[in-house]
Specification:
Length: 354
């Protein structure tokens, strides 16, 4: 059964490695630089088979984790608690030269065959105190027009630090915007201008994120010596927190759709709008299932006034929020208010009956 499970994983998971950057961790050891080797592919953590596992492979893991030199190889089965039966063995036949900077750059077998958790690989690296990178306790954007735009600062033990633009990318910016409860990340500026440069110390850890993490603490941090100056301070712009409402109806769950952008409420054009988009709105508002509004009902909510913020919105129906759907740039449209979107959700019917 385990063999069949691993064959399925090999066929369906391994081809998608490029879709989500993998990560590595050591589990069950006395410190973070020792333990059973686990890797993450597309959001799933699994173990590494020890077939061919040697000190060169361990050296790459130690390098990737910023843990100094490799000390010894060790069976991952020794570390408790052991990997569960539901956790797959994702890699077999690892063959590193020892010079790679990540485990994913090493050669591996194409498939995982006949390898159980009793053969999990382990690793022990040096654990010098100075090998531990700083991990921020919180982050903030400062000196911008609002909390969702500004110079990035990390906060560790009450000390604020600016972040050098070297190595910073949109994946990490996405995590910051998510952590702050803002909208999508916009990488419009890579560094601060003279007016918005910081004066605090410059952060000493390199930050590596997949872009899917809920906050920066779940990203990988490596010790990093750099020659950055405050001319290279990172500036981030996120969209404002995405808010929407239904207005003109008998309840909060029916009416003309409006979204908030830059502090101004505006309507949404119905070009391409359909059932999937309706459902995302109803889900986001906690209003139950969507009900297709009649033209009469649509007109009863009245015409919007002012800005038309969104046009050509495309959703799958599974998004948790309208902000994850595709759309034109904010404010770009070819519509009039006669095309404003109206939405009716099932909870509005219940409200009207009570």
């Amino acid at each position: 059964m385990a063999l069949l499970f691993n064959l399925i994983l090999a066929i369906f998971i391994r081809p998608g490695l490029s879709e989500s950057p993998p990560r590595v961790r050591l589990v069950g050891g006395a410190h973070r630089c020792e333990g059973r080797v686990e890797v993450e592919y597309n959001g799933q953590w699994g173990t590494v088979c020890d077939d061919g596992w040697d000190l060169k492979d361990v050296a790459v893991v130690c390098q990737e984790l910023g843990c100094g030199a490799a000390k010894i190889t060790r069976s991952g089965a020794l570390y408790k608690p052991p990997a569960s039966n539901e956790q797959p063995v994702l890699i077999q036949g690892v063959n590193c030269s020892g010079m790679e900077d990540t485990l994913t750059k090493c050669k591996t077998d194409e498939y995982v065959l006949e390898c159980s958790h009793e053969e999990d690989a382990g690793a022990v690296c040096e654990n010098p105190e100075n090998s531990f990178p700083l991990v921020p306790e919180s982050v903030q954007l400062v000196d911008g027009p609002g909390r969702c735009q500004g110079r990035l600062e990390m906060i560790h033990r009450g000390q604020r630090s600016t972040v050098c633009k070297a190595g910073w990318n949109l994946r990490a910016a996405k995590v910051v915007c998510r952590q702050l409860g803002c909208g999508k990340a916009l990488l419009t500026q890579r560094h601060c201008n003279k007016i918005t440069q910081g004066k605090a110390p410059i952060w000493k850890s390199q930050i590596l994120c997949s872009g899917q993490e809920t906050d920066l603490q779940h990203c990988l941090f490596r010790p990093w010596e750099n020659n950055c100056t405050h001319d290279e301070d990172t500036w981030i712009e996120c969209e404002d927190a995405f808010e929407l409402r239904l207005v003109g109806g008998d309840s909060l769950c029916s009416g003309r759709l409006e979204v908030l952008h830059k502090g101004v409420w505006g309507s949404v054009c119905d070009d391409g709008w359909g059932e999937e988009e309706d459902q995302v709105v109803c889900n986001q508002l906690g209003c139950g299932e969507s009900i297709l509004p009649s033209s009469k009902a649509r007109k009863s909510y009245g015409l919007g006034a002012g800005r038309i913020w969104l046009d050509d919105v495309v959703c799958s129906g599974e998004e948790p929020s309208l902000e994850f759907c595709l759309h034109r740039l904010w404010g770009y449209h070819d519509c009039t208010h006669k095309e404003d979107v109206a939405v009716i959700c099932s909870n509005s019917v219940l409200d009207s009956d009570t």
